[in-house]
Design goal:
By secondary structure, the chain is mostly beta strands. A four-stranded antiparallel β-sheet has the order 2-3-4-8, with no helix packed on it. Strand 6 and strand 7 form a beta hairpin. The longest helix has 10 residues. The radius of gyration is 13 Å and the shape is globular. The mean pLDDT is about 95.
């Protein structure tokens, strides 16, 4: 069951930008694409834990600022020859507000 919580306004995140949400499972990067799609995933590259929120976003991907790994925002998986991934979290945009699925965070905490 999904339990969506309001984490802020869409306009709080610049187009092709990111913001960090500190949670009980760690930092979650919330990205906004040029098409106003929103994605949420762990803010730590699977390679060396670089902050993905500081990376360069292009389309539906972000490039880690440390070693240029490219992470697919929708799946959390590394692309190209790189392997690994990060957890993703369901998000919705309703009435200009970003809603994050809190139950997915709780499930992640229980799995740790």
């Amino acid at each position: 069951m999904n339990d969506f919580i309001d984490i802020g306004a869409l306009e709080d995140i610049p187009s092709q930008g990111a913001r960090v949400l500190r949670t009980h499972v760690g930092c979650v990067a919330v990205f906004r694409t040029a098409e106003d799609e929103v994605f949420a995933l762990d803010d730590a590259c699977p390679h060396k834990k670089g902050p993905l929120s500081n990376g360069i976003q292009h389309g539906r991907s972000v490039t880690c600022p440390l070693h240029n790994w490219v992470i697919d925002l929708s799946t959390g998986r590394a692309t190209g020859a790189d392997e690994g991934g990060v957890a993703t979290y369901p998000v919705q945009v309703r009435g200009g507000r970003i809603l994050l699925d809190a139950s997915s965070l709780a499930a992640r905490l229980a799995a740790q």
